[in-house]
Amino acid sequence: MQDYITENQKENQHLGNVTFKCADVTKLDFPAASFDLVFSNWLFMYLSDTENVQVFRKILAWLSPGGYFFLRESCYHQSGNVKRNENPTLYRTPLEYFELLKDVSSDNLGYKIIRSKNILAYIKYHANPNQLCFLTKRVENNELDNRTQYLESQYTIEHIRSMERVYGHNYCSTGGEYATRDFCTRLGLLPGQKVLDVGCGTGGSAIFMARHYGVDVHGVDLSTNMIHIAIERQGKLEPQVKKKIQFEISDILDVEYENDSYDIIYSRDCILHIENKLQLFRKLHRWLRPGGTLFFTDFCMNNSQPSQSFLNYAKTFKCNTLPTIKSHGEALRKVGFQDIETQDLHEEYIKFIETELRAFTATREAFVQDFSQKQFDDISKSWRDKIRWTGEGELTWAAFTAAKN
């Protein structure tokens, strides 16, 4: 639209560092490696899938090696409530944008998703979690994150929903809401506090804390499918709860947040997947406010010589070596945490998973109808194995609390 370009020139051409151009993005072209950053706001929701793939492929070529592509779009459904005679917008899910970005990747070049999140201003002021932004990076394929690729294959939408049938709706960690309720009572949560939920999954703990304690929760997870489900469900919450939650897809080791910005950092059963735990704990210590609390649960090895069956199980979750309660405590102390408390919860863990297995077994017929007999058998065997390994002292579940003084 030339009128916009003309007005833009009036306002900004005095800066001397802007080139103005009126063009149709589907016909636009530039030489390869022309830009370090391509920025777009509310554009691709007006283009068809075919047009998006065409433009995404061109942008990949325009970017310099390691360059970034940022886009922001309306997702899921219309944001406002004004009736329109004509609406050209295509309200895609984040997963659909990820698939379009993947479609343009070749054998040696592609986009890596660095971050994707719903926009806090829209959440806070409009109770609207469906405005999303995406930051991607031009990478060689050997730079693509194997852990991210693993999560995408392991945590499919169907797999996540099947696990929620064991843990409870919105939960993908031991004890579901029962454990969350117990752990939250330890944290002294107060209305208005800021909480970072690392490995938030489908958002069960984040929603629980926002609803029952009035805290503001920033949930982060590496799984695109987990966050897709979380944001989709966030849109259906009561407004006063919806406004207190922001979800983000990112690798916690790759992102940076402001120092001293969270009162509580909370995590459930995911730190074992992160190989560089010292790097993680240094970041968490930096982000926590003085006087703040770090709380997390994790699975730990409780035996110096685990069985081969247990080691095989650990490998399926990309855990080269499981931590021990002692190694976690030492790492926390090394990066500066104080008042470190550890609690071996193996007895509680056995009670939780025995209860989960009994309830799951009782619903076998409905589960098999919705999923499959094989999935039922695999989950049942996994729970029985975990009961055995914990009872024999190979596996334990532990809680860790530490302070930044």
From TrEMBL:
Residues 8-71 form the Methyltransferase type domain. InterPro entries: Methyltransf_11 (IPR013216), SAM-dependent_MTases_sf (IPR029063). Pathway: Phospholipid metabolism; phosphatidylcholine biosynthesis; Lipid metabolism. Keywords: Methyltransferase, Transferase. It catalyses: N-methylethanolamine phosphate + S-adenosyl-L-methionine = N,N-dimethylethanolamine phosphate + S-adenosyl-L-homocysteine + H(+); N,N-dimethylethanolamine phosphate + S-adenosyl-L-methionine = phosphocholine + S-adenosyl-L-homocysteine + H(+). It comes from the Eukaryota. One of its GO terms (biological process) is methylation. GO terms for molecular function: phosphoethanolamine N-methyltransferase activity. Pfam families: Methyltransf_11, Methyltransf_23. CDD domains: AdoMet_MTases. The keyword Nucleotide-binding does not apply. Its EC number is 2.1.1.103. This is phosphoethanolamine N-methyltransferase. It comes from Cherax quadricarinatus. The lineage of its organism: Eukaryota, Metazoa, Ecdysozoa, Arthropoda, Crustacea.
